[in-house]
Amino acid sequence: MEHTWRCAITVADLGEFGIIARIIGRLPQFPAVLLGPGDDAAVLRAPDGRIVVTTDLLLEGRHFRRDWSSPYDVGRKAAAQNLADVAAMGAAPTALVVGLGLPGDLPTDWLDGLTDGFRDECAPIGASVAGGDIVRSERIVLGVTALGDLGGRAPVTRSGARPGQVLAVAGRLGRAAAGLALFLAGRAGTSARFAELEDAHRRPSPPYACGPAAAALGATAMLDVSDGLLQDVGHIAEASGVRVEIDARTLSPDEPLAAAAAELGEDPLRWMLTGGEDHALAAVFPPEVRLPAEWQVVGRITEGEGVQVSGHEEAYGGWDHFRS
Amino acid sequence: MEHTWRCAITVADLGEFGIIARIIGRLPQFPAVLLGPGDDAAVLRAPDGRIVVTTDLLLEGRHFRRDWSSPYDVGRKAAAQNLADVAAMGAAPTALVVGLGLPGDLPTDWLDGLTDGFRDECAPIGASVAGGDIVRSERIVLGVTALGDLGGRAPVTRSGARPGQVLAVAGRLGRAAAGLALFLAGRAGTSARFAELEDAHRRPSPPYACGPAAAALGATAMLDVSDGLLQDVGHIAEASGVRVEIDARTLSPDEPLAAAAAELGEDPLRWMLTGGEDHALAAVFPPEVRLPAEWQVVGRITEGEGVQVSGHEEAYGGWDHFRS
């Protein structure tokens, strides 16, 4: 019997310029990119004379784990959470630039998976990974910056909500939180019913196109739900000087969410109200706006301050990236 | 005798939103920022319909040490190395967005120093810190993205150098490397003569205005010297399909550099040719261009490939971020 030793090629074997060449070779560049990777900086089109820009840091062990998420999922998720911030301004994402901190012993397969994840989250919406930086790091670090185009529209900020308007959500709520709870409880992979929740934790599916569409419909405030609906609409309440009333009766957990909650003895509504990372969009519209099917009305704006949940007794909290 | 215990306030005491408010309060926003920190994304002017964008990761222990550099210096350096990349395209930097990974026990004084460093590197050139992200991290992580405006000019890439043109440098060479060598040898702080070299390691002083000026003068290729002149002009040689000949006789070490080299038994020319982090600009110009005093001609472009150093016998190498 013969034993075969498989020696994984690592990123240290490639060296900095080998890594860069390998990444660039896997990334298509779309027309918004006038000058792509390989120079001191990229040059992007900004057709209406403005650019939307947002940045996030993702750290291994804190924002993802290599034993829970594939490299492909990590890339998809890192791209998604930044692209969603661009969409939440009412803009169409055009490009990412990515700073990568990589351990020297990271297999090149892992790097390829990560690159493909970035590519596949960006390409369907016509966005490119237009540049980046590679450094050596003990743990994986991702510094992701997304840019986007407002298409002539005003940005939709958090401060335009007015009493009498309605709060609506596009995308899903609570699913990433349910998936994370399954992982934390050691129940991930135990039932096919929960697979889509585990996938939702691994990578969100933000409704990107709903962002610019909401701006065109006349949304007065918008943000992406990254820290939980309750906490995030609290930012709209504060910035707009209004009260947001969420009607919990409009939030009905679907079957997988209800089943996972029953399995773990959890409250599915808690996941929907306080669970982050699904990157749904929450927006405020004047009451006369006829909302497309992607949007579900979940509350209303009144005089006052803070966020109130009606139709439910329990008090809910949010998420502080720093204290948790 | 009375003992007073001074309890430092930490960033964990402030929490995520307290940290953000504290940072924002110290940062001026200049007119290129249409919407600054506090929303899902920032909105910047891009007056000529294009935007230059570049990103870098800086990791504590790898790119800076808290015992060698003050927080203010770390902020200045992190901003400078990104702003220099923008200038090296021929663009005027307009804004940064910054992802911050911070340990919970980091004193708020440290955060304030860092913020002020970013501010003071940006403000003199009219650039703003327009947004960011805060996460908790064991060690400090900085993900810095810089954006800039080409002012209607074509970007100056690495690929436009042609035989017969001249290579020139604006800014200083070898000083950050000399300062680092003094730190590594435990000789930092031992002589006032070396203070400016140690400062050069702590924070570079890139000649930002020379970038757009070089573009306006007709530079055909340009980059910022971050990994050493030899290695960096190698990128111009490769991208342009030419040979770069550096005349070592044009590189005369000034007094502090020569003194530090004598003290450490080093070759000052090695620092000037292979030392990174000064973020000088190296550019190629047609021979007929009359260069302002900021630019010093250090070589010429010929047919062929690679980089040759004439007037000196020794072979020199560069810097690979990944292997070193």
UniProtKB/TrEMBL annotation, chains A, B:
Pathway: Cofactor biosynthesis; thiamine diphosphate biosynthesis; thiamine diphosphate from thiamine phosphate: step 1/1. ATP binds at residues 132-133, 158, 226. It holds the Pfam family AIRS. Its EC number is 2.7.4.16. It comes from the Bacteria. GO terms for molecular function: ATP binding; magnesium ion binding; thiamine-phosphate kinase activity. Mg(2+) 3 binds at residues 40, 85, 224. This is Thiamine-monophosphate kinase. Reaction mechanism of ThiL seems to utilize a direct, inline transfer of the gamma-phosphate of ATP to TMP rather than a phosphorylated enzyme intermediate. The gene is thiL. Mg(2+) 4 binds at residues 40, 54, 85. InterPro entries: PurM-like_C_dom (IPR010918), PurM-like_C_sf (IPR036676), PurM-like_N (IPR016188), PurM-like_N_sf (IPR036921), ThiL-like (IPR006283). Residues 162-309 form the PurM-like C-terminal domain. Mg(2+) 1 binds at residues 55-56, 133. Mg(2+) 5 binds at residue 227.
